Amino acid sequence: MIVNDSIQCLGPDVETILTKKMFTGMTNIEIERGSKRAFYIRLNGADLVYSEVESVNEVYREDSHIQILTGAGLGGFFQDFVAPRMWNGRVGYAAETNSFHNFADDVCSRFIQSDSVESTNNNFGLVFDLRSKAAGDLNVKGLAIFTDTNKDVEYEIYAIPNGYEFGLGSMTNWLSPVARGRGRSDGSEPLVISGLDFEEVKIAPGKTVGFYLTLKSKNLLYHVTSLSPGSTFVQNDDIVVTVGSGVASYPQKDLFYNSRGIYGQIYYTSNDACDLETTVSYFFVVHHPTFMTSKEVTDDIRFRLKATIPSLLKEDGSILKGIKGTHNLGAESVQPYVDNGDLGNIARNIYWHHFF
User: Fold this and answer.
1) Domain 109-273 indexed as CATH 2.60.120.820
2) What are the residue boundaries of the structural domains of the chain, listed by start?
3) Across the strands, what pairs with 84?
């Protein structure tokens, strides 16, 4: 038993968080690469919410580090198994040995990485595809790669719409380099190419962009796989990284080695993760007869503002108009706030907030 405690639940559709201090008799639950750990959550009543699923022991959710598999519900203490069922909730974890680089603290930032097991397979370069699974745009911000030398290497990274196959064997169709420079990977630490050293690449929902990563020397490490080129090498909820081909020359010409995968990380931001609500405040001082209630006043103004705000967004020459045009914003709701302040009993301040 790792948790034996009581906690106040907050009601339907509101998660109950088991904090770290509630875990006793252990420091960390460590799960080695490739191994499984089973968990049993039990309440003192039939209040735990779970979902019906189609099969047992199948991957229900996964990210760059872990997979959560479907399981079973229980009608009693270690008895009355009902399967298949899936627990509803979240897992908090830290990847102690499988995180190459903490890219950013921004909520929009994401990364995906390949198997962290060391590779001894090297060549000049690698071609592979990135395919978006997200509902919004993805912006590739950089890569982390490994080399077989602790000396500086010269690198170049190119991108091409629709997939690397449209530029295989020739540099003619590749766009200008999105990255070009010099650096080194040191032991277990990768060479990180990001920030000002990398020109971000946008991937629209459902679209594919091909990448050509190359060094000017035969020092790039990558993985050899039995998967065929174009198949999924690694994926998460946002992005698919495909199996590609090793490139046997600089620049690429006519010799390639199929079934090769990137050894490292790909950094990106997801608009899905940044779909945040923004409040824009408008302030009005409304004078009204004392016999009118605040509700009567706010109901009337709410009705009028709902009709007015869309035209305001179209006609407003301020920054609000530019933001709307750039990000396709629209008014979601109107919320009044009443302040019975210093204006006396003949007037009240009505504060309006618009959510976009």
Assistant:
1) yes
2) 20-87, 109-273, 279-355
3) none
